[in-house]
Amino acid sequence: MYSNEPHIETNGLNAYYGNIQALKNISIVIPRKQITMIIGPSGCGKTSLLKCLNRFFELSPNTSVTGEVLTDGENIYNPSIDITEIRKKAGLLAQRPYPLPMSIYDNVAYGIRIHHTRPRREMDHWVQHYLEIAGLWEEVKDRLHSPANNLSIGQQQRLCLARGLAVEPEIILGDEPTSALDPISAQNIESRLLDLKSQYTIILVTHILRQARRLADYVIFMYLGEVIEAGLAEQVFNHPQHERTQAYLSGVF
Amino acid sequence: MSKVLTNNQTISNVHRNNQPITQKRNRLDKIVHNSLLAISSLPILFALAIFLALWFRAYPILQVHSFIELISGTVWKPLKGLFGFYPFIVGTGWVTLVAIIIAVPICILTTLYLSEYAGVWAQRLVKPILDLLAAIPSVVYGVWGILVIVPMVKNYAVPLFQPLGNVFPIFMSKNPTGYSILAGGLVLAVMITPFIISIAYEVLQTVPAGLRQASLALGTTRWQTIKYVVLPVSSGGIFASVVLGCSRALGETMAVLMVVGNMVQIPHSIFDSAYPLPALIANNYGEMMSIPMYDSALMTGALILMVMILILNIFSVLILRHILIEPH
Ligand SMILES: Nc1ncnc2c1ncn2[C@@H]1O[C@H](COP(=O)(O)OP(=O)(O)OP(=O)(O)O)[C@@H](O)[C@H]1O
Ligand SMILES: [Mg+2]
User: Fold this and answer.
1) Domains with residue ranges and CATH for chain A
2) Do B216 and A163 touch (CB under 8 A)?
3) Which of A87, A231, A250, B244 has the fewest CB atoms within 10 Å, i.e. the most exposed one?
4) Residue among A17, A28, A32, A19 nearest A67 (CA)
5) Between A153-165 and A183-196, two packed helices, what is the crossing angle to 10 degrees?
6) Distance from CA of A167 to the nearest CA of B (A)
7) What is the ipTM of this complex?
8) Ligand 1 pocket list (CB less than 6 A)
9) pLDDT digits (tens, 9 = 90+) for B168-199
10) Residue A48: how many CA atoms within 13 Å on its side-chain side?
11) Helix (H) or strand (E) segment spanning residue A220
């Protein structure tokens, strides 16, 4: 069904907030170096699913997870696994940008310094490199050492992208990464993500169907904690199999 | 055309009809504003009133001796008219400093654990316990100090640290009773701990979860996130919580005077006894008032205490401003 080999697979994934079951028996395959978009009505569990992929779900109190998430064939819920490695591998672009309380430069250098992924003396080069990929370099090159908080929201989101890319992830997770942005900034982020597709597996949650149509190679439609339909974007959008999917795509709910 | 006209008419009508209501509302708003202003300036007025009252009562002695002379004088012989406050000021400083040095690391580590590592159940359990500890009357802490802390200092701390006394004079012991600066500092530390933790915890709770997650998402450990993200944004608030604890320690009276020995001397070691200013006032006010200037001298003591707390607060505001302005 998928042309690319799978990068992430979930098997019978269940996730609970206390007694509330947010994810019900999710078994999906996410192909490598493609954009997979998760769509569905509010509260259906899109954010929860995304958070299970980088072990962020457990940051909320009283949560529990059963089932498997295999990244490159390795179960990330294996108790002996190093969580920081999982999170390094799957970077997260949040709904709202949160610049770290330091300069623009240090935001990008933060992950490099912590993981020692690049030699210290090459730092300037790499900071510039990632800011360029995120499309922010030209705007900030003259004020690299001013606080990151002074940037506009749209610039902050691109800074968060640069900061995330700097730890050399293989997967980019985005939870409605453009929803807090103005249309131009949103478009900017979208085109960045399209550029990055050739090197990264990208998984995005969105509420905007048109955005999903623009970006998605694969689509996962969720409803009340279950995956109703998943497949090639063209397939799901043009020939949805399930009537719930049809209803959602035609704007009934 | 006619529609526009009626619209205009309606607007002007509404405008005219509403004028008295608007005026009334504005007047009401002004009354509320002024009364709130009056109420909120009350605390400042109280502080000013206390300061003035102390000043007037202290005035007689300040005419005879200068303020500098009083705070640098080392001899306290009221019958001879000698009122040197230096031993009391130093005693207050020692006890407070010892308390802060003991309390601050414990408070910060506890707060970090509670806020960043502990589960919900631990937070639910510890919060009420802290509130309870903060509500225990100070005299109860004093009794506990006499029964537990003083013997502990006497039987364990003194023998343990005495060998160090030759190298570090602050551990020298010439006082075998246990009633000492260390005992006072320990009791004070226990008293201000719940207070500092409560405030510092609230400060850490104001750090947005999204900010922590932004750091964790990069594959950092919890400790790295605390060190590089949580502490830098909350350092000002944590510092403020310590200063508030310090202010409390400076003014705490009952528990301290019960364990600190109350001897008029300039202490040189944590095992010496001391006589902090609040203890001086509480022990002597209302007694021996026939001694000339005695009442006035005690009021000067209170004034000095107030000035010390004021200086601490000004100092902390300056440091806070420095911390907050400095780009992280
Ligand atoms: N911290 C939480 N505690 C308890 N229940 C939660 C929590 N977060 C989410 N839920 C519940 O889990 C379910 C799935 O939530 P989730 O946030 O994954 O939905 P979503 O699809 O991302 O919604 P939206 O599109 O509005 O962001 C919802 O029923 C929600 O109420
Ligand atoms: Mg969501």
Assistant:
1) 6-97+171-249 (3.40.50.300)
2) no
3) A250
4) A28
5) 20
6) 7
7) 0.92
8) A 17, 20, 22, 42-48, 60
9) 888 888 888 999 999 999 999 999 999 999 99
10) 27
11) strand A218-223
